[in-house]
Amino acid sequence: DTGVSQDPRHKITKRGQNVTFRCDPISEHNRLYWYRQTLGQGPEFLTYFQNEAQLEKSRLLSDRFSAERPKGSFSTLEIQRTEQGDSAMYLCASSRRGNIYNEQFFGPGTRLTVL
Amino acid sequence: DQQVKQNSPSLSVQEGRISILNCDYTNSMFDYFLWYKKYPAEGPTFLISISSIKDKNEDGRFTVFLNKSAKHLSLHIVPSQPGDSAVYFCAASAQGAQKLVFGQGTRLTINP
Questions:
Q1: Contact residues of A toward B, CB < 8 A
Q2: In whole numbers, what is the pLDDT of chain A averaged over residues?
Q3: Taking the CB of residue A102, how many other CB atoms lie within 10 A of it?
Q4: d(CA A81, CA B59)
Q5: pLDDT at A1 over 70
Q6: What per-residue string of b and e applies to A52-87 under the rule 16 or more CB within 10 Å gives b?
Q7: Which of A17, A27, A73, B79 has the fewest CB neighbours in a 10 Å radius?
Q8: What pLDDT was estimated at residue B110?
Q9: DSSP states of B75-99 as a string?
């Protein structure tokens, strides 16, 4: 079964290193989202895919961030040259096309700590 | 610019009583509103939603009320149970938009 899965669950890295996170959405969901959540805040939208097309990117997604969804299945989020301000929980969500309330199903998140 | 605001960071309620969580928004383009519950070390879990054409939606112990003129919504949990202790997020979505805009969250603690 299955819900949205994310890997790894935790990542500790040194400033300046590159990191990559993976998200596997619910299998019949064609929409996939990435959010970032910092302490004491709600999730903030980063980017959205419909199938393999990246249709929207937040201004929060700087040039150091890139996301892909090859073949419209799993997605990866890469952060290059990490900075301490990148420390956050990175959440992935998926949804079905035609879902009028925009109900999104979230994974458990990847917690990134940049030292 | 915080378009969705939850002004109470925390709320403590006795088991069996009613819990009321509040949320305000500023963007009149929002058409759909959702509540999510989040336990530690887990992602947010969808709880209940409401469209802007309604003023109330009920699902078991959970009821969401929407006051469009005041740009305010609330989540009522009756009766409150210990398992309801979690962080609750209000979220909003504009028609045609895909992203959800979240509030800061309210930590609900149900005391036995």
A1: 4, 31, 33, 35, 40-45, 48, 50, 55-56, 58, 91, 93, 100-109
A2: 94
A3: 22
A4: 46
A5: no
A6: eebeeebeebeeebebebeeeebbebebeebeeebb
A7: A27
A8: 98
A9: EEESS--GGG-EEEEEEEEETT---
